[in-house]
Specification:
The protein has about 325 residues and is of the alpha/beta class. About 40% of the residues lie in helices and about 20% in strands. β7 and β8 form a beta hairpin.
Length: about 325
Amino acid sequence: MAARVFVSYSHKDEELRDQLEVQLSMLKRQGLIDVWHDRRMLAGDHLDWTISAELDAADIVLLLVSPDFLASDYCYKIEKGRALERHQEGTARLISVILRPCDWTHTDLAQYLVTPTDGKPITLWPNSDEAFLDVAKSIRRAIKEIGAAEQPKDVHEFIELEEVEAMAEELPRSSNLRLQKEFTEADKDRFLLDAFEYMDRFFQGSLSELEARNQGIQARYRKVDGNTFTATVYRGGAKTAACSIRLGGMVGNGIAYSNGDEAPTNSMNESMSVESDDQKLFLRPMGMPHFGLPTDRDTLSEEGAAEYYWSLLIQPLQGN
């Protein structure tokens, strides 16, 4: 029998909850967990009664902690409160997952072990898959410790003959079904802002990890205002690499990169703007550091754009 996992979260963190659930896929395939959250409710279910019943039946309670979780009376007072009671009674295991930076260390959750490792918020990890995997491993350990599930199932799955025959009975269809998408100015502005905010978190996480992994390196992140942040790296006490990244910049609707952490606002060494094809929005750099050279950076995702600007910062440290 699978361990019952109850997920308490703020709806503003739904996308992060979905990413976590994807990382839990192998635990589900092995029959080790059965995950429940309020999006699993059926039409006609009574909200409070159903949540209370699922919370009381859970073997493991995951609290997805964020500023919005702490601000929610329902999450913080009701769901967290009951989860702590059951953990202290020994009838369930409480696992706090720190999603985003917040003041969780001043709550009663600080008395218990949290995930990911050292309570580092998931959004500050350079690689979110690695962070969610760290959480999944903690859940796997908890299941084993409390003996809440049977032996894992064999996951070498294959399709039965009946399934193949059923698939063959489906009507034939074309694979050419893609239609052109239209993107509004609001869509583009939201994409740009999301990309800048992701880049801000990406640099914080990368600078922290760079310093942790390399002796003699000191890294400094500084938020100048809502539209600008700087990154500085010292090697042996000497400033070796620095940049300023601004939302907007000289090109208007874009994200500008300038060498140096005190660069004037009317200067830049690279810039990227939001563009689209018939299916998606993306960021396109001007290619100023690679002028006249072929480049594979014509269409960048949020992560690709952050990685590109990070490569410009770290290049002097790598001797390239």
